[in-house]
Amino acid sequence: MTSRTVTIDGNDAAAHVAYKTNEVIAIYPITPSSPMGESADAWAAHDDKNIWGMTPLVRELQSEGGAAGTVHGSLQTGALTTTFTASQGLLLMIPNMFKIAGEQTSTVFHIAARSIATHALSIFGDHSDVMAARSTGWGMLFANSIQEVMDFALISQATTLEARVPFLHVFDGFRTSHEVMKIRELSDEEIRAMIDDQLVQAHRRRALTPDHPVMRGTAQNPDVFFQSRERANSLYTETPAIVGRVMDKFAALTGRQYRLFDYVGAPDAERVIVMMGSGCETAEETVTALCARGEKVGLLKVRLYRPFSVDSFIAALPASVRTIAVLDRTKEPGGAGEPLYQDVVTAISEACQKPDRQGGQAALAHARASDTPPRIIGGRYGLGSKEFTPAMAKSVFDEMTKPAPKNHFSVGITDDLTFTSLDVDPNFNTEPEGQVRALFWGLGADGTVSANKNSIKIIGEETPNYAQGYFVYDSKKAGAMTVSHLRFGPEPIKSTYLIQRASFIAVHQFDFLNRYQVLDAAEDGATLLLNSPYDANEVWANLPRPVQETIIAKRIKVHTINAYAVAKENQLGNRTNTIMQTCFFAISGVLPREEAITKIKESIRKTYGKRGEPVVRQNFAAVDAALAHLHEVTIPAEASSTTDLPPAVSAAAPEFVQHVTAEMIAGRGDLLPVSAFPLDGTYPVGTAQWEKRNIAQEVPVWEPDLCIECGKCMLVCPHATIRAKVCHQSEFENAPAGFKTMPAKWRELPDQLYTIQVAVEDCTGCQLCVEVCPAKDKSNVSRKALNMHAQLPLRDSERVNWEYFLTLPEINRNGDLTFGSVKNVQLLQPLFEFSGACSGCGETPYIKLMTQLFGDRTIIANATGCSSIYGGNLPTTPYTINREGRGPAWSNSLFEDNAEFGLGMRMALDHQGAYARSLVERMRKLVGDSLADGLLNRDEGTITAKRELVSELRAKLSGRMEPEARDLLSVADSLVKKSVWIVGGDGWAYDIGYGGLDHVMASGQDVNILVLDTEVYSNTGGQASKATPLGAVAKFASGGKPTAKKDLGMGAMRYGNVYVAQIAMGANDTHTVKAFLEAEAHSGPSLIIAYSQCIAHGIDMAKGMHQQKLAVDSGHWPLYRFDPKLANEGKNPFQLDSHDPKIPLQDYIYTEGRYRMLRQSDPEAAKFLLKQAQESVDHRWRQYTQMAEMKP
Amino acid sequence: MSLTTNYLGLVLRNPIVASSSPLSHSMDSIRRLEDAGASAVVMYSLFEEQITFESSYVDHYLRSGTNSFAEALSFFPEMDQYNVGPDEYLNLIRRAKESVDIPVIGSLNGVSAGGWINYAGLIEDAGADALELNVYYVPTNLDLAGQEVENIYVEMLRSVKKSVTIPLAMKLSPYFSSLGNIAKRLVDEGANGLVLFNRFYQPDLDLETLQVAPRLVLSNSNELRLPLRWVAILYGRLLADLAITTGVHTSEDVLKGLMAGAKVTMMASELLQNGVRRIKEILGEIESWMEEREYASVAQMIGSMSQQHCAEPAAFERANYMKTLDSYRPVN
C-alpha cells in the first residue's frame, strides 16, 4: 500500500484520520485542539472526501457541551461522529460522555490534553483533563509522538467500532499537538483496510429510526439501575484484547507494531519508569543512553490506559524489575497518589495476590523469590507543559537506586516547601551527535516561526533527513517573542524537549542580546546568525560584554546581515522571514547552498503562489539579496565591550516583582522554587508597569503648539501609554529639561498647565492616537499635534519625562470638574495599563475607560478569552491601583460562566452591604446617629464622602472587642458602592455564555456587562461566533457566514429593565462615555455592546477607529441607548443615536480583509451575501427607526 | 452609406468604440454595448498597481499576527484561490469573445517594466483582438528629464510589443514637450495605433478633513479640442491609426474627430452619464448628417480637416490661439 511522508503537527495527524473515518464532525474552538476543527472545516469546505467518498458534515457549536450533545445525537442516529477538544472543553463534554459510554456507542474524541484551570488558567499540556474523565467509561489510548497520533487515531477508531466502547484518543497539548515532525501518512487504502464496513453497518443498525423504533435513555428506579450498569462489564473485559488485535492488524499493514504496554530498555532492567504521553519519547532517549552505559533501566509506555489491562501490564514488565517509578502528568491533591500510580499499585497488588495469574508469573518472579513485591514510587512531572528532559528522567532512575526513594515526588521543579522535588543534574544530556539543532529567537511579527515551519517542510519533504520543529511563544499579543527549536538528522528524533545544546543559533532581533541569555544553549563551535543594524565590522563593538565573552569561550562563529534593510529594499516591510531563512540555509550546511536556494524558491512559489505573482517576486528578490548581504564577523581574541545586560526590572519595583516577576520576564521562571509563589493564585496588581518592553520602532511625539486638548488620543490608546494631566504651574518647577506643557484650556481650571506624556517604553507604536488626532498644522497639514518619530533616540529622555509625569498630582475627582466628556474623563488616571493586547487593539480602550471612570470601586468578572489573557496572563498584568491604593479587583472563572460569576460577586456585595447596614443600625448607639444616618443613606454624597464616613466608622470601632463591632469592621467597606463589571468577548456573550448572560440580565441585579464585540473568536484565532456578520469570512465560515449577526441588544431590551447601549468610540466618543456613565448609574443590569476592531478583521490596525466609523456610517453598527429610566419618566426608552446610513454597506465591508477575501475567492457568493447583508442592515435600520419613533 | 472604418487592422461597423471604462466590467454590460451599436469595446484596464496591491493585501492579511501567539497561530482560513492575478480579467475577455461579435480590445495600465508586462501575452492568449497600452505616469521626480520620461514610454512599448502579435495601440497623455516627436518614436517602435488622450484623474482637496481626495470627474465636449488638435496635426504623418478618446459626447464630436483624422472615436463619459443607448442615437444622427450632406462613407471624411487637408493649416498652430482669444467677448 502506498503511503507518503509528510511533515505535519500532531493536530493535523489526528484530524487526518478523524476526517477520513467520520461522517459528522461537531466542533468548538479551544486551545490547543482548535486546529483539528479548523483543518476538518477547511477540508470540508474544499470538498475533500472521507474513505466512503463523502464530504463529512462539519458544524461549529456554541460550546463544547453543545458539540458533545450534537455528537451524541448524531451517534444515536447512526452516523460515525467525532469531535476534538481539550481541558475545560472536555469537562463540558463529560455529562454526554457518560451517556455515550453507557449506551455503548462507538466513537473517538481526539484530545490535545491540556491543564485544567485551578489556581490559574494554563493553555498548556498535561493530563489533568483526561484524568478528570477517566470514570466516564471511555477507553483511553495515549499517543506519544506525531506518528503515533496518526496511527492511534486509526487504531482507536477501528477498536471502538468493534468494542462498542467509546475512546478518547489522547496526545499531549502543544508538545505533540503543535510539534511539527516528518512522519509517514496513512493512505486512504490503509485506513480503508482498518475499518470494517460490517461494523460500520452494525453501528448504523443500532441507530434510532421510526422504521424500527426503540427507546434509549430511559429513567430507571433502584430496582434495576445497578444491574443495568453492570450489564456491559464484558465489553470492558474484552476491549484490551480487541485493541491488541487491531494493533497487530495495523502492524501487518504498516510495519509499525504497537502493544497495549510497550516496554523498551534492558531486558533485565531493575528500575523501570511507567508513564504515558510525549514524555515517553524523552524517557526512551534517556533509557537508551543509560543502557548504553550498562545501567539496568527500562521504560514501560502505557498505550491503553482505559480499560486498564492488569494482565497485559504485568506481562509487559521485565521479570527483573525491583523498583517501579510511575510518572503522572497530573495532580490529584489529597489522593493516595496520582491516577496512573494508583493503577500501577493496584495492578501489582492484584498480581501479587494472585501470583499464579497468567502473565503475572514471569514479571513477578523476583518478587515471589524474594517474597517482596517490586517497590513502587510515584511522582509528578510536566504540569502545564513544564519541560521534561533526559536529565529529569535520569533523576527519577537515580532516585530509584536510593534505599529510601521519595514517593509522591515531583521532578522538573524545585519544591523548597514540602521537598517533593528530585535533584536534577543540569549537565546530563542525551542529544545525539550528527544532528543539526537550531534555535531561532525572533518576533511573532518578523515571521521567524513561519520561516522555520517552512524550513522543516523543505528538509523533511525534500531530503531523507528526519525533521522536528517546536515553537515557544510568549504570552503577549503585541511584540511577542518566539523561540523556534528545530532538529534535523539522519536518525528518528525522540527528543520531546527544548533544545539544550544548539549547533546553530539565530537571533532575529538584535535587542534580544541585551534581554535574554540567547547563547546559553550554544554548544562549542556553534554558529550564530545575527540580524543586526550594524555592518559586519561594527557588530562586535555593539555586543554586550557577556555575549562577547560567551562567543569567545564557546568559539562561536558569527555571521551577520541587516535583514531589515534588505527587507525594506525589497518592499517586504518588517518581514525578514525569507531573508533569515536563506541565511540559515546558506551557513548551516543542512543542504548544499544552491540546492537550498532552489528549494526555498520552490517553497515560496508554493506558499505565496496563490497570493499573486508580485508577492512571489518580492520574496525571490529577498532570497537573492540575502546572500549578497550576509557576512562573517571576525572575532577578536578578547572581549572589549563595557556594557552589561540591564536588569529585567527597575530597582524601584516592589519586592515580589524584583524576586519573582523579574525572573519570569528574564526567562528564568523555570528556576523559581515553589515557595516563590502565592498559596492560592492571588497576585499583586500593577505589575505591567515594570516590564519595559520597548517594542515600538516609532512612538507618538506631542506638539503642544497644535494641541487642542481634546483627549481623543488618550481615549483610543489601547495600552494607556499616552496620558494627560492638568496641574498648577508650581508643580512643574522641577520638570526635566524638555518636559512639555501648555496652558490648560478649561474654564474650571484657570491658570493651570496641561501636559501630555507618552510612555515610550510601553507604547506599541500602533498609531491610533495619531490617526484620531484632529489638530493639524495650518501651514503643513501633514503635521499633527501627535506625530510618529523613531523611539530609540527618544527612549532615555522620555523615560525621565515619564517618571516625572507620574509624580505629578492626579486630577481631583471631587473638584470643580465633572467627568461627562471625553476631554475631562481623559484626565482621570487609567487603572489598566500596558497590557499584552495586540497593537491597535479595539477592546482595551473600552476597558481602560471603564477603569478611569469607576476603577477604584470596581470588581471585574472576566470571561476567558483575549481580555483574560491580556488582562491576567503572567508574568505581568495591567490592572493597577491609584495613589490611595484602590483599583479594579479582577478575576476569571471560566469561559462559559462569566455572567453568573459576576452575579455571584454582586450577590455577595449586596449581602455584605445589607449586613453592614443592619449592623450599623444595630450599633447606632455606639456609632452615633449622625454617622449612622450618613452611612445608611444610599443616595446622598459622593463615593469619596461615603469612604470618609467609613473611615470615621473604622476609627470608632477600632479596638472594640464586641463581636458585632468586629463583624462590622470586616464588612464596613461594603457600605460604599461597588461596581460589578462583567467583561468578555462575543464568543462568551453570544455563544458559550449566552444562557447565563440571559439569566443574569433577567435577574434584575445591578451588574454591568461589557461585551467587547470583535465579531469573531479572537483569542483562539478567528473562528466564527454568532456575532460574526453575514458575509464575513472566518474560520468555520470560510464561505462567508451565511446567517446574520445575532441582535444581542434587542434581546436584552425586551426585558424592559435592562439598560442597553451599542457603542463604537471611533464613531462617537461622547456617546461612548455617556453610555458607560448611564450603564453604571442604572440600578439594574446594564449591557454595553462595544464595537472592537481586531487583527482578525484583516485591517490596517492604525485605522481601527476609522473602521468603527465606517461600520456606523454604513448602518452595520447603529449606535443606540435603551434606558429604562426614560420609560419610567413616560418617555421612549430607546434612543437611536446614529444618523441614517451614509454609505452603502460595501463601502465599509470591502475595506476589511474578512469580507474582501470572499469577494476575491468567490465573487458570486460575495455578491449574493452582500445583497443579503445590505437587506439585513436596511431591515434592522427600519426596525430601529420605528422603535425610536414609537410613542411611549 | 457606409459607416465602416478600419482601426488597428480591424474592420469596424462604425466609428464609435466603447472606451476603457467600468462599462466593460461585466459580460452583461459588454453585451449591452454591442447591442447599442458600439463597433468595438476596449476593456477596462488591468492595472499594475491593482494587481500588486491585491497581491500584497492578501499576503498582508493572511500573515498579519500569524505564528505569534500560541492560541492563535492564524486568523483566517486558507482559501482555494484569491483571484489576485489577472484571471478574472482574462476570463472576462474569453467570455466576451465567445459572446459578442464585435472586436474586444484589451487594456493594460502600468508604469514599470516589471513582470506585469507578461499579462499582455495572457490578454492575447485570452483572445483579445488588440491591446491598448495605457502608460499612466506622473513624473514627480524633479531630477527626471523629459527625454527620460519619454524613454520610459518607448521602453514599455518595446517590451510589450515583444510579447504579443496582436495589434498594439498606445494611449498617451497630452503632457509631452513634443507630442509629435514621442508619437513618432512610438510608431517607429511598432505602435499600430495612438489613442489621444488618457484622462489623468486629478486629486482634489477636502477642505473639511484637510485630506487629498481622489475624485472622478467625467469629461465634456469642451475637452474634445485638445485631442482634436493633435489628431489633426498627426494625421497623415505617421503610419499608425489614430483614435480620439476624450470629450466625445455627441454626433458632432464624432464627426469632428473623424474629420480631424481619427479612425475611431471612443466614448465613456457620455455612456456612463446618459446610458449606452446614446450610441444608437448618435449613429442615427451621424447617418442623417451624412445623408443630408451626401457623404457616402465615413472613410471619405477621415482626415478631411486634418492639418494636411484643411484650408488653414496654421489654425492648428499659434494662429488658432490668437483667433480663439480674439473671438472671446466678455459679458457686459
User: Helical segment tally of chain B?
Assistant: 12
Stated plainly, the CATH topology of the largest domain in chain A is called Rossmann fold
Q: Biggest interface and which pair forms it?
A: A-B, 62 and 39 residues
Q: What is the level-2 CATH architecture name of chain B? A: Alpha-Beta Barrel
Overall body shape of chain B: globular
Number of domains of chain A: 6
Low-confidence stretches of chain A: none
What's the CATH C level of the largest domain in chain A? Alpha Beta
Computed over alpha carbons, the radius of gyration of chain B is 22 Å
Number of strands of chain A: 37
Distance between the termini of chain A: 75 Å
In this structure, how is the largest beta sheet of chain A organized?
Answer: 9 strands, mixed
Q: For the record, what is the CATH homologous superfamily label of chain B?
A: Aldolase class I
Order of helices and strands of chain B: EEEHEEHHEHEHEHEEEHEHEHHHH
- The total count of helices of chain A amounts to 45
Q: Per the principal axes of the C-alpha atoms, what is the gross shape of chain A?
A: globular
Task: Provide a descriptive summary of the structure in words.
The complex is a heterodimer of chains A (1192) and B (332). By secondary structure, chain A is α/β, with parallel strands linked by helices. Chain A is 39% helix and 16% strand. In chain A, the strands form 7 sheets. Chain A has a 9-stranded mixed sheet with strand order 1-8-17-18-16-19-20-21-22. In chain A, strands 31-30-32-33-35-34-36-37 form an 8-stranded mixed sheet, sandwiched between helices. In chain A, α30 (844-854) packs across α40 (1069-1081). Chain A is globular and about 90 Å long. Chain A starts with a strand and ends with a helix. The model of chain A has no long low-confidence stretch (mean pLDDT 95). Chain B is α/β, with parallel strands linked by helices and 332 residues long. Chain B has a single domain, classed as Aldolase class I (TIM Barrel, Alpha-Beta Barrel). Helices cover 39% and strands 16% of the residues of chain B. Chain B has helices spanning 27-36, 48-63, 87-99, 118-125, 146-163, 179-188, 225-234, 251-260, 269-274, 277-292, 298-301, 318-327; strands at residues 5-7, 10-12, 16-18, 40-42, 46-47, 104-110, 130-135, 168-172, 193-196, 203-206, 211-214, 241-244, 264-267. In chain B, the strands form 3 sheets. An 8-stranded parallel barrel of chain B has the order 3-4-6-7-8-9-12-13, surrounded by 7 helices. Chain B has a two-stranded antiparallel ribbon with strand order 1-2. A two-stranded antiparallel ribbon of chain B has the order 10-11. In chain B, α7 runs parallel beside α8. The mean pLDDT of chain B is 90. The chains are: A alpha/beta (1192), B alpha/beta (332). Chains A and B meet through α2, α17, α24 and α44 of A and α2 of B.
